[in-house]
Amino acid sequence: MKEPEKRVLDEIASLEEQIAALPIGYISKKMIRGKLKYYHQWTEDGKLKSKYLSDEACEALRPQIEERRKLQARLKELGKGTSRTKKQSFETNVVSGDALVALSKGVMAWGKRECYTQLTGYLYGNMTDRVCLVFGLRRTGKTTMLRQAVGEMSADQIAKAVYIKATTSDTMASMNRDLKRLSELRYRYVFIDEVTLMSDFIDSAAIFSDIYAAQGMKIVLSGTDSLGFWFALHQELYDRAVMVHTTFIPFREHSRLLGINDIDEYIRYGGTLRAGELSFDDPELNTEAASFRDDESARRYIDSAICKNIQHSLACCEDGGHFRHLRTLYENGELTGAINRIIEDMNHSFVLSVLTKDFVSHDLRLTARNLRRDRDAEKRTDVLDRLDLTSVTQNLMKLLEIRNKEEQQIGITTAHVAEIKEYLLALDLIADCPIETVVKGTEPVEHIVFTQPGMRYCQAQALVYYLMKDDAFFSLSEIEKNAVAERILEEVRGRMMEEIILLETSKALPARYRVFKLQFDAGEFDMVVYDSVENTCRIYEIKHSELAVPEQCRHLLDEEKCTATERRFGKITGKYLIYRGSSMENSDGIKYLSVSEYLRSLPANN
To answer: What does pTM read for this prediction?
Structure first.
């Protein structure tokens, strides 16, 4: 293939990716009671959808709609002059030979996901009668992995490999005919991307494993609607699939791929590899391209990557027969709003928990002293000495409770919440990191953690700034309001750092270990790692601080807490404090661990 045509293919791939990230539809305007109103309208599952837009939202949406149209026009123009169109012998978009090689050119310099070895293990291992499912939320590296796998193939393997980009107009019948033709031509490796766009994929997925994988084909299926794979696995494929999950991107992997080693950067932007798809070296591009740089970008991601994911998969599964209690919301166009609301409510509850458990009870003297002594004169302030923080906190809690109640007026029932949470778990978006007590016989308490920290943080940040604009704080100066907001967000980052460490430790360690937060009548250990084989445990405190302060270790040195812990979870073999400073050991035998070093040292769980 000539170099100009390769450049065209690379541009087409880039355009398709950019188009997928932009909103569909158009903006319409209507005159209602003498006032001009704007609406975002689009077609979804054959139905016209409409959403009212404020003037501000309209101005924000308009350039995105225009940009999508320009990109589509350019894509159409390029499509006329490239051989990347459907070959006459195939009904779907089958890419092979030089065109297949060209697909891998732009990604070979990029780092690889840890789960990449699972993909190559399937391709070149001895597994038979199985397909490989590469699934996860958008911008977590699925298509990149497929292109990297192609790029590492030998010339002989490339000659036996094809890549198919499925579309909404494709069907399992046409895909079946093409696979039959490829089998006759002795192709061995078949990569099918965006397979969940086919509306009948879920109910017919077994043909991939039962027919073609059984004949010796290695079939890799990837797609945006990862819930569709979950349904297919449980209803069609069962034990005939190798699963490669991409949604969860731990700190060590985020750090390695993007070169970002600060835990606060991971809290703000972690969860996707969008920045890495553009540049591994430019920190400014990394920040600008982050999916969770503000509340609006997070909402767009939730709408496109999560809400549409769930709705499309439910609509395609058993001809919509799996909607259960969610059918009424779907038919009334309210399911997207309900999913968004539940995610927001979970994050609001998280912020409320921070206010009640951390912000109120936390000793402010150290923070106040540091602010008074800050080397930067512009940051030096005695605001925390002058504020009635108890009153401020009570006002914030009251406002948050009111906001939560207002947002629960759309008719969401406990059945809706339970089903949506079930799907969020299936999408790997949330995980349960339980809370236990020292009392034997008590059941662990559910503790939901979001696996995409950037999404949680930006929603929490938006909520805090919303609360700070309320009239209840009119008496505070802008400096004071900003100081209080930052104080709350500091606590949010601290709690999120705890959650990240709990989640990543539990996912990384073998099944013999249990990882949980341990609560006492007063106080808690932020993390306990219990070895069920040796009947021993390690106890941890986690502090979002760069300073090593003796007060941080008070729970670890509390003999009563340690004795109660050992009665239930065996001998304590280590006491640790994880923080943002340097690793060291203090005179009491407590080891201080750098949070970035600790998270990077956790083993990959492949």
So the answer is: 0.76
